[in-house]
């Protein structure tokens, strides 16, 4: 996985041809001003960048060149990138800036002390310095770039000087000064963590590859940024707090031992790739209203199936549940209005499919590779918009399509739906389109939407025999044999098939 991450990051970086202004005592410099320089490297060195420096390096505080004495004030961008034979660097007190990727992938760098004058640490500055043991940020540091200490798997201490005005640290985790933003955790951090109650945001890449992290109490967190818990293989269960409003790109990507997930009721969007490749994930407790499942959100969660009672879901994004190979009989939540492109791509075990009455659109190749589908029930009165590629040709030829009685002619005339060789009535009729009340049937159970919990519900067999009388709130606890029923909600009758 480290190789994959390294490749991804490297691809994101446009590598150009670096030059230097002069070299003194085998250290290369770029002139920044009349009296200051930064340390750089020789692009023409053996093995490109990683041949420039090796062993122990001491950077001087001043350097003379052609009659001018310069102050060495910065470690420039890429200065020591991939110097995999570099073991120790001594920096002068004149250094104020550590540039972007300055010590990127210095895999044998064991020790470095940041001078008291350093004010900025660039993006990816110490990325993948796997043998580095300790990092202490001096009081002068005012900015820390993204992924600055990412994948430093050998760290035993990550601290901030108590006099720093911008940042603080606690238990090897770096926060902003008032502890509202969690910036970075030491990658070897482990066990169960309870965040300070002040934390409202988890920053980008904050816990990347913290394999020893087994549990975390997110308390009052409102935002989880991109890739915050990427590849945290020790996590087995996550409860998103009610305070959470935003879940970023790849937030829990590749948490391969995560088995259970409990959502919160205030989250409106599950971010793109948020739980992609969480291959052990079996149970997701969805919550909220009009929840949008982002593109690739649960792709390759091969043990996951969707609970039809997750009526909070209104939209399923492109590839959202692609390669979830355990799907067999799928009853999608009734409130889903849109199913994106390749949403269930490569779910080869699906044989039965039930789509809700609010469905308006299914994207291209939504069920591509689902060639075993032989029964489709669509409860939408108006045929949803689909493409010819929504289903495979074999599905159009061999699957039975069941639609509401009064809509059968509409489906037979609708573009692409008409390609189904067999279209039959589903017996879902007599639903008043002007009514907010909906009867939902599936897997032996009935549910009512749009009525008060205390409303009376009576369920009758087609011969008029009373099967069950209860309330909307209690109806879910009863199961029914397959068949056709008449459901009375207060004074309105609905004919449904289970």
How would you describe this structure to a colleague?
It is a single chain. Mean pLDDT is about 90; it is low at about 1-15 and about 430-435. It contains three helices and 40 strands. It has four domains: about 15-165, Alpha-Beta Horseshoe (Leucine-rich repeat, LRR (right-handed beta-alpha superhelix)), CATH 3.80.10; about 190-285, Ribonuclease Inhibitor (Leucine-rich repeat, LRR (right-handed beta-alpha superhelix), Alpha-Beta Horseshoe), CATH 3.80.10; about 305-425, Ribonuclease Inhibitor (Leucine-rich repeat, LRR (right-handed beta-alpha superhelix)), CATH 3.80.10; about 440-495. The two termini are about 45 Å apart. It is mainly beta.
Number of strands: 40
How many structural units, i.e. domains? 4
Low-pLDDT stretches: 1-17, 428-433
- CATH arch. level architecture of the largest domain: Alpha-Beta Horseshoe
Helicity level? under 10%
Report how far apart the termini are: 46 Å
The CATH first-level class of the largest domain comes to Alpha Beta
Corresponding CATH superfamily of the largest domain: Ribonuclease Inhibitor
Structural class computed from helices and strand pairing: mainly beta
Main pleated sheet: 8 strands, mixed
Instruction: Fill in the CATH topology of the largest domain.
Output: Leucine-rich repeat, LRR (right-handed beta-alpha superhelix)
Rg is 30 Å
Number of helices: 3
The coarse overall form would be elongated
What portion of residues belong to β-strands? 25-35%
Mean pLDDT: 89
């Amino acid at each position: 996985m480290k190789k994959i991450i390294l490749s991804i990051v490297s691809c994101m970086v446009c590598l150009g041809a670096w030059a230097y202004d002069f070299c003194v005592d085998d250290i290369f410099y770029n002139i920044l001003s009349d009296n200051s320089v930064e340390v750089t490297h020789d692009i023409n060195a053996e093995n490109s960048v990683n041949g420039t420096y090796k062993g122990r390096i001491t950077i001087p505080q001043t350097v003379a060149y052609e009659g001018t004495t310069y102050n060495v004030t910065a470690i420039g961008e890429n200065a020591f990138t991939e110097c995999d034979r570099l073991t120790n660097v001594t920096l002068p007190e004149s250094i104020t800036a550590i540039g972007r990727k300055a010590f990127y992938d210095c895999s044998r760098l064991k020790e470095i002390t940041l001078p008291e004058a350093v004010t900025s640490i660039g993006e990816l500055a110490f990325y993948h310095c796997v043998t580095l043991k300790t990092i202490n940020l001096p009081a002068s540091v005012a900015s820390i770039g993204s992924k600055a200490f990412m994948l430093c798997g050998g760290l035993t201490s990550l601290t901030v000087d108590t006099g720093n005005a911008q940042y603080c640290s606690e238990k090897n985790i770096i926060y902003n000064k008032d502890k509202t933003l969690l910036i970075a955790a030491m990658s070897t951090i482990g066990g169960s963590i309870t965040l300070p109650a002040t934390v409202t945001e988890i920053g980008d890449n904050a816990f990347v590859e913290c394999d020893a992290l087994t549990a975390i109490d997110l308390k009052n967190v409102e935002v989880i940024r991109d890739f915050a818990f990427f590849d945290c293989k020790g996590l087995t269960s996550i409860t998103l707090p009610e305070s959470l409003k935003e879940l970023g790109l790849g937030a829990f990507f590749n948490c391969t031992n995560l088995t259970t997930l409990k959502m919160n009721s205030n989250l409106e969007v599950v971010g793109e790739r948020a739980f992609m490749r969480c291959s052990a994930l079996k149970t997701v407790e969805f919550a909220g209203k009009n929840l949008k499942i982002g593109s690739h959100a649960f792709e390759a969660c091969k043990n996951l199936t969707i609970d039809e009672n997750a009526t909070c879901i209104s939209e399923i994004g492109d590839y959202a549940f692609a390669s979830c190979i355990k799907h067999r009989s799928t009853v999608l939540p009734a409130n889903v209005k849109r199913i994106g492109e390749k949403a269930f791509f490569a779910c080869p075990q699906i044989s039965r499919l039930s789509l809700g009455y609010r469905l308006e659109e299914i994207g291209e190749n939504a069920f591509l590779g689902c060639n075993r589908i032989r029964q489709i029930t669509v409860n939408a009165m108006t045929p949803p918009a689909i493409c010819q590629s929504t289903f495979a040709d074999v599905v159009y030829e061999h699957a039975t399509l069941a639609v509401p009685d009064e809509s059968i002619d509409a489906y037979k005339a609708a573009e692409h739906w008409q390609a189904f060789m067999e279209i039959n009535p589903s017996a879902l009729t007599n639903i008043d389109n002007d009514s907010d009340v909906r009867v939902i049937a599936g897997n032996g159970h009935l549910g009512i939407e749009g009525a008060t919990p205390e409303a009376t519900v009576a369920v009758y067999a087609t011969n008029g025999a009373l099967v069950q009388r209860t309330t909307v709130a209690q109806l879910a606890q009863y199961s029914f044999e397959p068949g056709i029923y008449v459901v009375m909600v207060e004074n309105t009758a609905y004919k449904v098939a289970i």
